[in-house]
Amino acid sequence: MCVMAEGDKIDVAVIGVGRMGRHHARIYAGLDGANLVAVVDADDDRAGETADRFGCADYETVDALLDAHPDLRAVTVAVPTLQHVEVAGMLLERGIACLVEKPLAPTTDACRALIDFAQRSGATLAVGHTERFNPAVRVVTDMHITPRFIEVDRVSPMTFRSLDIGVVMDMMIHDLDLVLMFADSPIKRVDATGVAVLAENEDVANARLLFENGCVANLTASRLALKTHRKMRLFSEAAYVSLDYHQRSGVAIRRSDNEQALVEIRSQIEAGADLTDIDYSELVNVTELDMEAEHDPLTGQLQSFLHAVATGDSPAVDGAAGMAAVDAAERVVAAIKEHTWAGLGKARV
Ligand SMILES: NC(=O)c1ccc[n+]([C@@H]2O[C@H](COP(=O)([O-])OP(=O)(O)OC[C@H]3O[C@@H](n4cnc5c(N)ncnc54)[C@H](O)[C@@H]3O)[C@@H](O)[C@H]2O)c1
Description:
- The protein has 349 residues and is an alpha/beta fold.
- The protein has two domains: 144 residues, Rossmann fold, CATH 3.40.50; 170 residues, Dihydrodipicolinate Reductase, domain 2, CATH 3.30.360.10.
- The chain is built from eleven helices and 16 strands.
- It has an eight-stranded mixed sheet. A six-stranded parallel sheet has the order 3-2-1-4-5-6, sandwiched between helices. A two-stranded antiparallel ribbon has the order 15-16.
- Strand 1, helix 1 and strand 2 form a beta-alpha-beta unit.
- Helix 7 packs across helix 11.
- The longest helix has 20 residues.
- It is globular.
- Bound molecules: nicotinamide-adenine-dinucleotide.
- The site of nicotinamide-adenine-dinucleotide has 24 residues, from loops.
């Protein structure tokens, strides 16, 4: 693997400039460490418009990109998930670093194929789990808590996009990646249920994951909601944390900040005192979490990718992490299919 000096501008291209890829192109075009040389899209009007906006070349195919830029070092792959392997595979095979939008691929077998391509050529393979760069998530990561129970809700109105995959691979996968990181333990069991309303794949899903270390995660995802709402709550011995990672806000109740109040309340309960007049929310010390971030999550993710390309360091979310999230999602979808409805038999999705 060729390692560049930090500070050099890295030539990058974006393959697929639809809903997500156009943001990658916009951000690369403004980043000091990147030189956006081209965008590629099977829709040539879309490629042309994006290239005009950001002052780069445009191509209709990856072959045309590689013919014109044989020394290209790094790309974002933001084509539909079902095409990730075909597109990212040929780039990784040639040693070109890829940031592949989430999910890494539609199946674990396909993820493994991409990881193998990257390992053989030595190319960096990063996965676009943008929530890892959400300041709300970073604050919890820095608290180093060991969660016993995690509750996640991610619901939003139907956008009529990504219908090629179900809500588990499309939306819940963000939270599966986070829950795997926070629980830091292999999954022992998955129970799930879901409903397909508009297309063949599930549009609403709920899953309960039990981890080997005893942690339990309860995740709900819906793309049929009337509002957007993304919340995570983590319960641990050391703290309770509530995050709104859509609003990028959060609070923590740390045991260490409340030890004295807990001791007093316990002794009053033991003494049989009537505590019904106590306002619990005033009793505990609640800390507003500082979510100030230098960058938006996608900018942080692209900078992290460029840093990995420049230094040869492992990316923040590597192929193995991307595959673990897909594996968890496959297990949730399998559990939904296995779920039996009283009187109706197995779920139809
Ligand atoms: N990180 C996130 O929060 C997030 C959000 C939305 C989508 N995504 C992911 O981003 C990826 C793209 O999703 P989207 O919503 O932007 O899709 P989209 O359909 O809006 O855009 C995909 C683009 O790729 C182009 N394309 C298709 N096949 C191509 C090929 N072989 N070569 C070149 N161009 C090709 C299409 O013409 C289209 O312009 C998916 O994997 C999706 O899961 C991630």
